[in-house]
Amino acid sequence: MSEPTALGLSARTGTIMVAFTVVFTAMMAFTHDATRTQIEASTSQEKMKLISEVLPAEAYDNPLLDDFVNLGPTPALGLTEGGRVYRARKAGRPAALLLETAAPDGYSGRIDLIVAIRADGSVAGVRAVSHRETPGLGDYIDPKKDKDKKSPWILQFSELKAAALPGCKVKKDGGQIAYRTGATISARAVTNAVARTARFAADHHDRLFAAPNGGTL
């Protein structure tokens, strides 16, 4: 029996590698398809959990995650790469806008937020989605990390009336929003972002609600 040649060994090795790649790719595709629905459901659940913190379920009756408008880069909201606005409706009428927004000037960098603005211009709620503020100091902007569990700092924005928005500044800047001593920058960044977001929602309210679902402004 003749010894296998180098060419023959190479061909055999190549065939095995190709077969392995095909099988591995098929397995990965199967796993992806099998888990995609579960992942999508989990993502939607997390989004709705966050939304429920800024806008109560009784405030709207439409499938909120399916009613949205995409935004391109929007400097007014601190969005350099764009974002999304969800539209809450009640009995077919505008109820609130939930806007992805950002404060680029946090103490440790960008603070991503979601802000709910009711149709009357009042603020329904605000939450920090992601941030890198100093643990134990500026991270009180996140209610999960705020040591004051009875009255988290971020709740000051809930039900902030439209008429009060011109004064939506931290007290140190002449406004009505309190802040924690030694961590003014974090509070100021979030407060100013909320004020900008409220103005944007007021200026573009009709256009946002009239835009085609899933479209981009």
Secondary structure: elements and pairs:
Layout (H helix, E strand, L loop, with lengths): L5 H49 L13 E4 L11 E8 L2 E14 L2 E10 L4 E8 L53 H27 L7
Antiparallel strand pairs: 1-2, 2-3, 3-4, 4-5
What's the quick description here?
With 217 residues, the chain is of the alpha+beta class. It has helices at residues 6-54, 184-210, and strands at 68-71, 83-90, 93-106, 109-118, 123-130.
Report strand %. 15-25%
Helices and strands: which structural class? Answer: alpha+beta
Poorly predicted spans: none
Q: What's the story with the biggest beta sheet? A: 5 strands, antiparallel
In total, how many beta strands? 5
Tell me the distance between the termini: 73 Å
Average pLDDT over all residues: 88
Any idea what the shape is?
A: globular
Overall tally of structural domains: 2
Helix count, DSSP H or I runs of 4 or more residues:
2
User: Strand order of the main beta sheet, please?
Assistant: 1-2-3-4-5
Order of helices and strands: HEEEEEH
Helix content bin: 25-40%
What is the CA-atom radius of gyration, in angstroms? 24 Å
